[in-house]
Amino acid sequence: MQTANQNAQQRHPADSKTCIPRSQSNVRERIARVRVPRSQRPLVRFIGGFVNSYAFQWFVMLVILANVIAIALETDALSNSGSSSVPVVFSYLDLFFLAVYVVEFVLKIYVEPIGYWKEAYNRFDAVILFVSLGQWIAQFYMAKSNNLTFLRVLRSLRALRAFRSISFIRSLKVVVNALVTTLTRNAVDILLLLVLLMFIFSVMGHYLFGDDPSNADAYSNWGTFIDGFYTLFVFVTAEGWTSYQDNLTGDGYYGSEAFTGAFIFIGNFIISNLFIGVICENLEEATEADRAFQQERRNAAKAQKREIFLRKQHRDMVQLLAVRKSDQQRNLQQILQDLAGTLRHEDVIPMTHLSCDLTWLETFMVSLHYHENTMYRIQQVEFGIANTLAEIGKCFGVTAPMNIFNELFWW
Question: pLDDT class for 4, splitting at 50, 70, 90?
Fold first, then answer.
């Protein structure tokens, strides 16, 4: 007997010293090997919920609005006083706003160290924050410097903080996305078409109106290719083009109105409406993309919740099976009752961990036995009801079942 105990201790010294059954130690090792994702850690989930809450977002939005108002008041105060020194109140306010931005950045980086940089607006906010920090550090070390022009340039960079409000307003983000898409994808083609149109009309205008130096006004506007290009740019904007047309009419170029009207119609009306149409199309695409992104976020949240439930059920099943193996006095029905006590209506049972296990097969057989027993009892109850109704029918002299029910209802 002693030899057997010594052999067991040599095989499993850790279990013999701590007096823990081998099955429970294996279960603990399996549970320890199940690593919880970083996003599911309690502190990360708490900070993530706090950062993504409406209260925190509204607080940061109000801070941005207050910062914009403070910058406007500071600019007005400096212009009225004529001094280059910033009042102390605005310095402390700027330090408070900067501290809030830094805390927000640190919290978001802690929640999503890599995912934070995947969104363009987060990168844009980070750039504005780094510029603000650089401006504050440079202003702190150059407070006694005489280079006022450089200090004014640094202070002007604080106006970029107003752009941070874009990342907190979804509708504004959709508009900005549509504008950026238009400028990066479609604006180049439209501008190229406009430049070709201006090139053609500039050459035509030079040979029609700029070949006679005696006509000083027309020659100054159409004498060279650059002058004609500038004149056509004025026609595109549709601002001040009447004076150029009056010069052509005064120099005797009758019929030039058709030339001017044709270019303004094509260059201003058609090109401008084409640009507006492209923006509207990109705005619709950006709206659909935002809806798809929000739906994807909701689906990801549901999948994350389901994953949490699956992990929870897996840990519960591992622990219950360990208890089943270690405690032979408890039967399977008691273990299943303990498992049912931990379930909720929205939880999901991981069938993949049970269907191939002998314990699961045993549970299934016991459930079938209970099902058959229940069906047998229900049949006995039905037979009892039928016999009772038959006895009642004999008392009333009724033999058919429907007549029995009619006589009962009549009484």
Answer: very low
Report which DSSP code applies to 397. Answer: T
Q: pLDDT tens for residues 251-266?
A: 788 888 888 889 889 8
User: How far apart, in Å, are the Cα atoms of 50 and each of 58, 61, 155, 166?
Assistant: 12, 15, 32, 20
Output phi, psi for 83, to 5 deg: -100, 155
Both tokens of 342, joined, read 């931990």
Inter-residue contact 332 to 359 (CB < 8 Å)? yes
Alpha-carbon gap, residue 399 to 169, rounded angstroms: 79
CA distances (Å), 102 to each of 98, 106, 214, 324, in order?
Answer: 6, 6, 67, 53
Return d(Cα 371, Cα 376) in angstroms, integer. Answer: 9
Count CB neighbours of 399 within 10 A: 10
CA atoms of 249 and 256, how far apart (whole Å): 7
Question: Which amino acid makes up residue 212?
Answer: D
pLDDT tens, 9-66?
A: 444 444 444 444 444 445 455 544 445 677 677 888 888 888 888 888 889 889 988 9
- Please name the residue that has the structure tokens 């805390």: 103
Distance of alpha carbon 245 from alpha carbon 255, whole angstroms: 11
Going by C-alpha positions, the residue among 381, 391, 317, 393 that lies closest to residue 348 is 317
The string of pLDDT tens digits covering residues 216-241 is 778 888 888 888 888 898 888 888 88
Q: Is residue 235 classed as helix, strand or coil in its secondary structure?
A: helix
